[in-house]
Amino acid sequence: MHYPVNVFTGKVRDYDGSRPSAIAKVQIDGELTLTELGLAGDEQAEKKIHGGPERALCHYPREHYLHWAREFPEQADLFVAPAFGENLSTDGMTEKDVFIGDIYRWGDALIQVTQPRSPCFKLNFHFGISDMSSLMQSAGKTGWLYRVVLAGQVFADAPLELASRLSDVSVYDACAIAWHLPFDDEQYHRLLSAAGLSTSWTRTMQKRRIARKIEDNSRRLWGK
Which of 12, 34, 52, 145 is most open to solvent, judged by the fewest CB atoms within 10 Å of its CB? Predict the structure, then answer.
């Protein structure tokens, strides 16, 4: 399958009442350089939780915007790509049919799905919706992140093409295991077995198995 893609990059800017962010991105056309840290010209404000080799690109399904516009009709005009700060936007790829470890060919590059995006409190400020990050997580409409397996030149008019599927854990399954289910060691083992899972998610799931409990996510979701 081939999936036409729109491409976006952004610069860090300040936001009243919140911390700096590069969530506001603009569409890019033509040829781009993709390195192991992402697209040339794209920035991340807090590199401890955004960006890096295993979170080099963020992908959000364009079809989800209709869902959010229906949920929040008064803010419907906000819900157009790339409102969630994504680098890649497509129709036809969702969390239910994209799998952890999937490798996609894009131009001269290869990119691999590493984890769902973990929604954070900055989305609440960005949309002016106090619980946006929590709703996004609960719905499993999070999008996902990639590592760059092979850097190279990419093109805004080049589609994504699935090259390899390495696990049976969809991005939606990963969301459900991490956030929707009570403590379940067997499911954490299943997720840990998914080839390509990011180091940060591997660490989190293994910590749960050791501690026999789920960590507190309130600071990520609410900034508290």
Answer: 12
- Angle, CA of 195, 199 and 200, to the nearest 5°: 125
Q: Tell whether the model's pLDDT for residue 50 goes beyond 70.
A: no
DSSP 8-state secondary structure symbol assigned to residue 194: S
Query: Which candidate, 84, 115, 117, 121, places its Cα nearest to that of 219?
Result: 121
Residue 98 tokens read as 């994209």
- State the DSSP code for 107: T
State the Cα–Cα distance between residues 114 and 221, nearest whole angstrom: 20
Query: Residues 104-161: pLDDT tens digits?
Result: 999 999 999 999 999 999 899 889 999 999 999 999 999 999 999 999 999 999 999 9
Distance CA 162, CA 164 (A): 6
CA–CA separation, 12 and 20 (whole Å): 6
**144 DSSP 8-state letter:** E
For the stretch 67-106, what's the b/e string if a residue is b when 16 or more beta carbons lie within 10 angstroms of its beta carbon?
A: ebeeebeeeeeebebbbbbbbbbbeebbbeebbbbbbbbb
Q: Which pLDDT band holds residue 101 (cuts at 50, 70, 90)?
A: very high
SS3 of residue 98 by DSSP: coil
Percent of the chain whose pLDDT exceeds 90 = 85
> Cβ atoms within 10 A of the Cβ of 113, count?
28
